[in-house]
Amino acid sequence: MTPHAVISGAGIGGPALAHQLASRGWKTTVIERFPQRRNEGQNVDIRGAAREVIRRMGIDADVRAANTGEVGLRFVKANGSHAAAFPIAAPGERDGPTAELEILRGELSRILIERTIDHADYRFDTQIIDVHDHGDHVTATLHDGTAIDADLLVIAEGLRSRSRRFVTPIEVTDLDMYFAYATLPRNDADDQWWNWQNATRSRTVHLRPDNLGTTRAILTFMSDVRGLEELDQDAQVTILRRTFAGIGGVAPRVLAELDKGAPMYFSAVGQLRNSVWSKGRVALLGDAASCNATFGGAGTSLALIGAYILAGELARARDTRAALARYQLSMRPFVDAAPYIRPAMLRMANPRTRTGIRALHAGARLVSSPVGKALGAVTGNRMNAAEHLPLPDYAHEAGTAT
To answer: pTM value?
Structure first.
């Protein structure tokens, strides 16, 4: 009998797992609460072992074709002058802020769904409201009353997953920071750099290129007020307009486009350290399992690696619970090697004062200089360590967990 997995979440991890399971003879049903595939969001990068994952999945060429074309990170001042620059790494060098494989989250989701649409049953505009683990199978009940029996349920949702409660009640740790992602019409002044503009009171404005003929803008600010991500978009735009008033530089352009109704996604930064990734026949994948912070792109690589390892362990083991335990154990080195965002790091990168911004720019100039690069090559960093973690080889595994 063909094994069946229900997957909740059609972002990155869910379709990636559907792809991996289909290659091992599984049937999959992918549940997504949004009415269609989501296009909004940030640039994400594919680093370390995740590059090998997409190669083994056969989508490397598709990902490269959809690359944003970003050439590096550049700190800029309100007057447009440049404070420091970090070009994309040359072949053989470790990645910097901009990875070799830089892609929009929506584009990567599109590629994965297109590759699995003929093998997976995608059900948009629905969500799981109840789960019953019978021991030998699990039943997921949807909000329309439909019940789906499966051998496995995987929660591949985001950091603030509503379905994680079926595995663990663990809470998200908020980091007192908000991000607003907007899509702007591209103009003649836009280039292929990720331009980062700091302003006082821990505010930043970013412009980044994409491969779709538009420009991606990001506004960030720090606040200990909770729940702003739950407000409607009009209220969020009002908050952004007041927060970023008078900054100068590219901020007025971004605010003007938001007033015109530019597509926007607003989120609160948080992180999750979770020691429980499964319960019975229900498992967590991606940010729903562990999240160092809801920005920076590392979660995308971990979701791709996690999907590969979970499917591989299910093929290797004869028992689902044993496979889920091995999956978490095998993922631990990758999770531990990912850069962990600390509040002090956020404050350093988002200074409150002009003096702090000048110090940040001075430090960036030093790090980007030949001397700074030489020191970095000698000392290394955690992200560089993650580049060399070996990826398990499941190519010859033919079993199926039950």
So the answer is: 0.92
